[in-house]
Structure formats: structure tokens, C-alpha cells
Amino acid sequence: MKLISPMLLALILFSCSTEEGKLTPITPDMDSFVFGVSYGMCMGDCADLFMIQGEAVFSDRNERYYNEELSFVPIPLGTDAYTEAKAILNDLPLTQLKEETDNRIGMPDAYDQGTIHILKSIDGEWKEFFIDTDDKNLPEYLIAYSQKLLSTIDSLKTK
Q1: DSSP string, 42-86
Q2: Is residue 145 in some structural domain?
Q3: How many other C-beta atoms are found inside a 10 Å radius of the C-beta of residue 124?
Q4: What's this model's pTM, rounded to 2 decimal places?
Q5: Residue 37 falls within a domain, yes or no?
Q6: In angstroms, how far is the first alpha carbon of the chain from the final one?
Q7: What is the largest CA-CA distance in the chain?
Q8: 3-state secondary structure of 36
Q9: Number of domains into which the chain is organized
Q10: From the centroid of its chain, how far is CA 19?
């Protein structure tokens, strides 16, 4: 039996489709953790979002954050990507975030520096946080976490 070439394998994987000829995207559920960054004043792909669902991490299909429903490519990134993403979830400063009175922390994207997004079910309800990417505008508890999150996003974009 001959081996299937990588190109043929990719063709087979990407040919599994809906009537529209596209892979069926997946969307977050109450057990998902979504994180990423977006930029309001940009051209092209202005959002890099990732979703942990089950034991896998998925990259987004969105080019914008605000104008589109969140959807993710239904092919998970590798196990290394999941390990990196899981560390972001494990380090999430949940106790402090629950104490925030506003879901906007700092001045997210106020001067085109971007916005960190965190979307998670907390106590049975979706909570979304918009966090400044500039450390000068963040409370102390978020500085190291936001740096690690941005570094992880950069890494996941290459996977």
C-alpha cells in the first residue's frame, strides 16, 4: 500500500465541507475559554483569537472582533499549542477579575495599541473583559499576566 502524500492528505482534510464548500466553524460553549488580541484601526486580519475547548485549542476565523460572531477553525492546533494556551487559562487571575467593577480595564485600544480579550464563563454566566495592552494602564495584578498572554498569542500565531 502506498503512503499518502502530505499534499493529498491536506486536500482530503480540507475537502470535508458543508454545502458552501467550507469547513463548518465551531463556536464557544460555556466550557470554552477565549482569549486574544484585536486592533480597531487596522486593515486586513485585525483579530487574533484562540479558544480552548475540551483538550484542544483552536484559532479564529475572524478578521474583526466587533463586526463578526466568534467562530473558530474546526481543526485544533497541536499539543504544544494546547500546552501553551492551557497555561494562560491556569494563570488567569480569576479572583481579581471577578472583583473588577468594569469589564474594560485600562484604556483598551484608545490610541491604537490594541485590546486583549478574555471571554470565560464565570459562575455560570459569560464574562468578557477588554484589557489594555499597555502595562502603564493596568493594575499590578494584570501586568505579568498580560505580558505572558501577549507572548503566548504571538507564539500561537506561528503554529
Answers
A1: -SS--EEEEEEETTEEEEB--S-SSSS---B-SS---HHHHHHHH
A2: yes
A3: 6
A4: 0.81
A5: yes
A6: 31
A7: 63
A8: strand
A9: 1
A10: 27
> What's the length of the chain?
159
Question: Cβ distance 1 to 7 under 8 Å?
Answer: no
Give the domain range for residue 77. Answer: 25-156
* 60 close to 72: Cβ distance less than 8 angstroms: yes
pLDDT in tens, 21-35: 467 888 888 889 999
As given in the structure block, the three cell numbers for residue 68 are 463578526
Say if 48 falls within a structural domain: yes
Place of cell 490594541: 114
CATH classification at residue 67: 3.30.1560
Kindly report, residue by residue over 50-98, the tens digit of the pLDDT.
Answer: 999 999 999 988 765 555 678 899 999 999 999 999 999 999 999 999 9
Does some domain include residue 2? no
Cα 138 to Cα 78: distance, rounded to the nearest angstrom: 32
Residue 49 grid coordinates: 483569537
